[in-house]
């Protein structure tokens, strides 16, 4: 059974790497789940070889390996259907450009998600970035953990004591309030072991190709009536 495309959009939209560093970031995700990908070493060999040379030489062989790994990560058996008899795990990570998250059970991924930071959020602290990543990921997948105890994995160690520490900033209050009603535990995991979410948080920014405008009708009858009545002397009397 194939997963819903909405769950794997972040992976399918990953742009072709242009630098050796970008290839290394991309490889962080399939490397983490390599035990679910048949013949991973053979498929990834051209990409791994490409990271040993500067500047990056992108060939037909590396493009084929790139496309094959994206398909492998976005189809069964890599992604599995949720089992509500098992606890869920939400892995999150925030980088300097965005956030990434993985929803999983017993180490097996169910869905990937990533989002770039807005210009305003880019100026916030690392703690706010990590809190944003957690709350956005849980909101994205709220139908899965709601009503069940689940685990949040983060590489920001101070968040482990989020429920017991003194909340000092308005941003912390705001993000903590978004987690009310959920039964969760926050566990710390170093960035070395958080490769999947880390890779998704560093997705290359996509170039805008078009602009979408939204027009909304607005009823002005009440405003016009109010102005006319205010100018009517007998009504004012």
Number of domains: 2
Give the strand order, joined by hyphens, for the main sheet: 3-2-1-4-5
Largest sheet: 5 strands, mixed
What proportion of the residues is helical, as a percent range? 25-40%
At the third CATH level, what is the topology name of the largest domain? Answer: Nucleotidyltransferase, domain 5
CATH architecture title of the largest domain: 2-Layer Sandwich
Question: Which radius of gyration do the C-alpha atoms yield?
Answer: 23 Å
Structural class: alpha/beta
What distance separates the N and C termini?
Answer: 73 Å
- What is the ordering of alpha helices and beta strands? HHHHEEEHHEHEHHH
Can you offer a commentary on this structure?
The chain is α/β, with parallel strands linked by helices. It has two domains: 5-73, 2-Layer Sandwich (Alpha-Beta Plaits), CATH 3.30.70; 88-201, Nucleotidyltransferase, domain 5. 38% of the residues lie in helices and 15% in strands. The protein contains ten helices and five strands, in the order ααααβββααβαβααα. It has helices spanning 9-12, 20-32, 40-50, 60-73, 119-122, 126-140, 170-177, 195-201, 221-230, 233-236; strands at residues 88-94, 98-105, 108-116, 149-154, 183-188. Strands 3-2-1-4-5 form a five-stranded mixed beta sheet. Helix 2 (20-32) runs antiparallel to helix 8 (195-201), helix 3 crosses helix 4 and helix 6 packs parallel to helix 7 (170-177). The longest helix is centred in the middle third of the chain and has 15 residues, at 126-140. The radius of gyration is 23 Å and the shape is extended. The relative contact order is 0.15. The model is unreliable at 205-217 (pLDDT under 50).
């Amino acid at each position: 059974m194939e997963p819903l495309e909405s769950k794997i959009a972040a992976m399918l939209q990953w742009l072709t790497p242009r630098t050796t560093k970008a290839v290394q970031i991309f490889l962080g995700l399939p490397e983490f789940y390599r035990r679910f990908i048949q013949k991973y070493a053979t498929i990834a060999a051209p990409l791994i070889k490409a990271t040993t040379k500067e500047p990056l030489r992108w060939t037909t062989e590396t493009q084929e390996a790139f496309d094959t790994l994206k398909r492998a990560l976005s189809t069964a058996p890599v992604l599995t259907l949720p089992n509500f008899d098992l606890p869920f795990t939400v892995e999150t990570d925030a980088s300097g450009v965005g956030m990434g998250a993985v929803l999983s059970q017993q180490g097996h991924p169910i869905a990937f998600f990533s989002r770039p930071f807005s210009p305003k959020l880019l100026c916030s602290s690392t703690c706010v970035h990590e809190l944003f990543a957690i709350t956005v990921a849980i909101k994205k997948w709220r139908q899965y953990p709601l009503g069940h105890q689940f685990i949040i994995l983060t590489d920001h160690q101070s968040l482990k004591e989020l429920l017991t520490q003194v909340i000092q900033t308005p941003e912390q209050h705001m993000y903590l309030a978004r987690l009310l009603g959920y039964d969760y535990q926050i566990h710390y995991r170093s960035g070395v072991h958080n490769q999947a979410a880390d890779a998704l948080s560093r997705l290359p920014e996509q170039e805008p190709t078009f602009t979408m405008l939204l027009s909304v009708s607005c009823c002005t009858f009440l405003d016009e009536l109010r102005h006319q009545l205010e100018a009517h002397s007998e009504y004012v009397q």
